[in-house]
TrEMBL record:
This is NAD(P) transhydrogenase subunit beta. Its EC number is 7.1.1.1. Pfam families: PNTB (PF02233). GO terms for molecular function: NADP binding; proton-translocating NAD(P)+ transhydrogenase activity. It is found in: Cell inner membrane. SUPFAM superfamilies: DHS-like NAD/FAD-binding domain. The transhydrogenation between NADH and NADP is coupled to respiration and ATP hydrolysis and functions as a proton pump across the membrane. Gene3D superfamilies: TPP-binding domain. It comes from Entotheonella factor. InterPro entries: DHS-like_NAD/FAD-binding_dom, NADH_DH_b, PNTB-like. It catalyses: NAD(+) + NADPH + H(+)(in) = NADH + NADP(+) + H(+)(out).
Length: 466
């Protein structure tokens, strides 16, 4: 029996790995994402059960308590956290993952130096790597959460000789790590390295503006995976190594996708200052020099109801107002009038990839009604009316026409090419990029000011009455 159990545990780990890979593969499409999520959850359940039955476990009661508390927190978060808060929640969970990896590394260091045998070079390097990446991920994620939550200033926080300071601190850490490797039984120096890694993580995120936080969160997600993988090497758990590598690789791919969608290099995100929030003086002058054409709910409803084709562009404003159900009802009313309705989805609409897809799926919008940017952009020139709901930077034509704009070159939805564009916004305030949007002053653009859910409900009622 003692020989059979390890074989069963390794078999369960292998099955869990396969389920995690299949789950990640299915997340590539909204249509298969739900099934992929379930496969990944099943894989994690198999992994947890296999670990619980591992004879090397010393405190089964404590593990079960952790499982219950963790499952309770996860369930409450999934049920009550709004979709608009997902970037914050993901950032916080990344930090927890990094913190857990750092704690494992610290615990293993304490266990090893308490024994008579000195740790070998490989073991010490993996411990230091897991501790460093985990601590950096934890503190960086906490700062990112604070910026998105408004607890920390969203604008980049800069100081003189910042990059030099970062470099010197990193050199100090490397020197200290070298000393710990040479003399492992130095708790004081090891604790100092933990604090230094924590400071480096915070300093890494503070200079980045809140507009770039989604990219940073994706990068920190990759870091949490690398920390978990390093922890797998520390405790010699093959599943943890593979799962951490999967998270790390997918996080890097997601980061690259977001940078591409924003036409930003990762180096520019990490060392630039794009993302300063607020309306600048130039923006105020631009608004004063242009004419805004307003439209009321009744007129907008008539334009939509008597159009042949309507494209709806959801944005962060729709997510904040929780207007997705109202949008679905409006689309249903328009389809009842014989209007062809399509949803145009920008890759980073809502400040996270897939954010809009999830929101619309929550409102029972059919996947077949969703169109990616590459598919829908050629269609705009032949569209009667485009209804932009709370989107800003992702429909800003300055990205196409103004080389001086900080978002120049960023792929956008070409809504300005449609016959008519109706924009629902609370005001003319700029988006996350903090710049003015020329779309609002185009001759074929009409502004419909107000809360997205209230306005869309009004449009639906008016269309229904026609």
């Amino acid at each position: 029996m003692s020989q059979v159990m390890p074989t069963l545990i390794h078999g369960a780990y292998l099955a869990s790995t396969v389920l995690l890979i299949l789950g990640l593969h299915n997340l590539r499409s909204p249509a298969s994402a739900i099934g992929g999520n379930r496969l990944a959850a099943l894989g994690m359940l198999v992994a947890v059960l296999a670990t619980v039955f591992n004879s090397a476990i010393l405190n089964l009661e404590l593990i079960l308590l952790g499982l219950i508390v963790g499952a309770l927190i996860g369930s409450l978060a999934a049920r009550f956290v709004q979709m608009t808060a997902m970037p914050k929640l993901v950032g916080l969970f990344n930090g927890f993952g990094g913190g857990a990896s750092a704690l494992v590394a610290i615990g293993e260091y304490g266990r090893l130096i308490s024994t008579s045998a000195a740790p070998d070079l490989y073991t010490m390097l993996t411990i230091l790597l897991g501790m460093f990446i985990g601590a950096v991920t934890l503190s960086g994620s906490l700062v990112a959460f604070g910026k998105l939550q408004g607890l920390v200033a969203g604008a980049p926080i800069m100081f003189r000789f910042q990059h030099v300071t970062h470099g010197l601190l990193m050199l100090v850490f490397l020197a200290g790590a070298g000393l710990v490797v040479q003399a492992p039984d130095t708790w004081g120096l090891f604790l100092a390295l933990i604090g230094l890694a924590f400071v480096l993580g915070a300093l890494f995120v503070l200079p980045i503006g809140s507009a770039d936080m989604p990219v940073v969160i994706s990068l920190l997600n990759a870091c949490s995976g690398l920390a978990a993988s390093a922890t797998g090497f520390i405790v010699q758990n093959p599943l943890l190594i593979v799962a951490g590598a999967l998270v790390g690789a997918s996080g890097v791919i997601l980061t690259q996708m977001m940078c591409t969608s924003m036409n930003r290099s990762l180096a520019h995100v990490l060392f630039g200052t794009f993302g300063t929030s607020g309306c600048t003086a130039d923006t105020g002058r631009a608004q004063a020099e242009h004419v805004v054409r307003r439209v009321d709910v009744e007129e907008a409803a008539m334009m939509l109801a008597y159009a042949r084709t309507v494209v709806i562009v959801p944005g962060y404003g729709m997510a904040v107002a929780q207007a997705q159900h109202a949008v679905y009802e409006l689309a249903a009313q328009l389809k009842g009038h014989g209007v062809e309705v399509t949803y145009a989805i920008h890759p980073v609409a809502g400040r996270m990839p897939g954010h809009m897809n999830v929101l619309l799926a929550e409102a029972n919008v059919a996947y077949t009604d969703l169109a990616d940017m590459e598919v829908i952009n050629p269609v705009f020139a032949h569209t009667d009316v485009v209804l932009v709901i709370g989107a800003n930077d992702i429909v800003n034509p300055a990205a196409r026409s103004d080389p001086q704009s900080p978002i120049y070159g960023m792929p956008i939805l070409d809504v300005d090419k449609a016959h008519h564009t109706i924009v629902i916004k609370r005001s003319l305030n700029p988006g996350f990029a903090g710049i003015d949007n020329p779309l609002f002053y185009e001759k074929n653009t009409m502004m419909l000011f107000g809360d997205a859910r209230t306005v869309v409900n009004g449009l639906s009622s008016e269309v229904k009455a026609l």
